[in-house]
């Protein structure tokens, strides 16, 4: 059974034809798809490794490997190509699909829309991995081009998700309501974490007890690229500036890549510049876990999210958290710790409620830690394997399970 995989992700091509990716390491193909399919052809955008400065290659790991054939769609390099070279893109996608028995298509993505269209024309079974809202992802990026494309992405994602044979949603209900499907569906997060040890929660509760016993200054944290505005950094700063008299000596730590100049100026205008720390980037794993352990409260005041990995990782460290009521966030946090999008006063009220009582802080930590257990690698890997085994059987025999 040969499967073709499509997504817009940009890979880097090495001198020997090997390819590298940030989000698609070879281990992902090996663990997630190769147990169900004999061979995978991976079709994304690609550019030469030599065209990217060495200091911009951080995080890229080898994606190509045994039983994984890289077949990049070279006609699609930018969004403009989707308009001016759509014939060439369709032809390349069609050739790839004709050599495959089925397809797995990650949406929302422009290349994914082409793949869905051609799969339907060729009557090839296809499964959709719906990992975000196409509308929200573009509408809230703050660029006019994104806003113009948002309705198109919403219609296309809705159309092709509805027509898909199998659909894997990363949320429990949010994406399902926006993009319903007539096919076989499953709710399986793409965030997989190693099950945290009980000592993690024990240390968190001890930290909470120490704060209330000694009135130690609180540390808040937020994860998100500084090159975008929709992660809510400004909302967080405004909320904390409203509470600075009640929270003497607080710190706000921002983890993520990008130029901090804009947010430094925001902090200066709000009078909290000395209390905001830009932490840059850290390697995934233990370093990020240690950073999360240094926080008292995690903040996620985003304009748009699907199912945020950063929040789930914070919850797995027992962090009390407050977030905006967008996307799949209400599936994770208690309602009392949710606020409206871009509502700094609402965020401030949530923090006042959380921080007013040690019992509330402890209960929030325990709730978040327990909720994060449902994202354990063991649980999700097993469910995902069953989903793709069923899809492979369906693609081979045409029987919907």
Automatic annotation (TrEMBL):
<dbReference type="Pfam" id="PF13692">
    <property type="entry name" value="Glyco_trans_1_4"/>
</dbReference>
<dbReference type="GO" id="GO:0016757">
    <property type="term" value="F:glycosyltransferase activity"/>
</dbReference>
<keyword id="KW-0328">Glycosyltransferase</keyword>
<protein>
    <submittedName>
        <fullName>Glycosyltransferase family 4 protein</fullName>
        <ecNumber>2.4.-.-</ecNumber>
    </submittedName>
</protein>
<keyword id="KW-0808">Transferase</keyword>
């Amino acid at each position: 059974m040969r499967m073709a995989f499509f997504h817009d992700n940009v890979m880097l091509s090495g001198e020997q034809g090997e390819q590298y990716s940030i989000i698609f390491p070879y281990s992902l193909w090996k663990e997630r798809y190769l147990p169900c399919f004999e061979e995978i052809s991976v079709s994304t955008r690609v550019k030469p490794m030599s065209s990217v400065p060495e200091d911009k290659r951080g995080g890229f790991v080898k994606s190509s490997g045994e039983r994984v054939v890289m077949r990049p769609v070279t006609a699609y390099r930018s969004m403009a190509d989707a308009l001016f070279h759509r014939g060439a893109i369709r032809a390349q996608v069609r050739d790839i699909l004709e050599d495959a028995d089925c397809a797995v298509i990650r949406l929302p993505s422009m290349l994914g829309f082409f793949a869905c269209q051609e799969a339907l024309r060729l009557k090839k079974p296809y499964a959709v991995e719906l990992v975000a809202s196409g509308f929200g992802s573009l509408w809230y990026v703050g660029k006019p081009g994104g806003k113009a494309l948002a309705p198109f992405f919403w219609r296309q994602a809705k159309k092709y998700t509805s027509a898909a044979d199998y659909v894997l949603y990363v949320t429990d209900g949010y994406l399902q309501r926006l993009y319903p499907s007539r096919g076989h569906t499953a709710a399986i997060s793409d965030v997989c974490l190693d099950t945290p040890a009980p000592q993690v929660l024990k240390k968190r509760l001890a930290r909470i007890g120490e704060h209330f016993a000694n009135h130690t200054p609180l540390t808040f944290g937020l994860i998100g690229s500084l090159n975008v505005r929709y992660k809510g950094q400004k909302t967080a700063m405004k909320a904390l500036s409203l509470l600075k008299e009640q929270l003497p000596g607080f710190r706000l730590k921002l983890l993520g890549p990008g130029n901090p100049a804009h947010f430094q100026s925001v902090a200066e205008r709000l009078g909290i510049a000395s209390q905001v720390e830009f932490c840059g980037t850290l390697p995934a794993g233990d370093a990020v876990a240690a950073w999360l352990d240094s926080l008292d409260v995690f903040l996620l005041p985003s304009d748009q999210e699907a199912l945020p990995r950063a929040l789930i990782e914070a919850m797995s460290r027992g962090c009390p958290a407050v977030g905006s009521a967008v996307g799949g966030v209400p599936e994770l946090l208690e309602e009392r710790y949710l606020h409206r999008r871009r509502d700094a006063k609402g965020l401030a009220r949530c923090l006042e409620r959380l921080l007013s009582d040690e019992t509330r802080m402890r209960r929030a930590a325990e709730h978040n830690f327990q909720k994060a257990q449902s994202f354990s690698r063991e649980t999700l890997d097993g469910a995902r394997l069953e989903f793709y085994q069923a899809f492979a059987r369906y693609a081979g025999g045409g029987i919907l399970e």
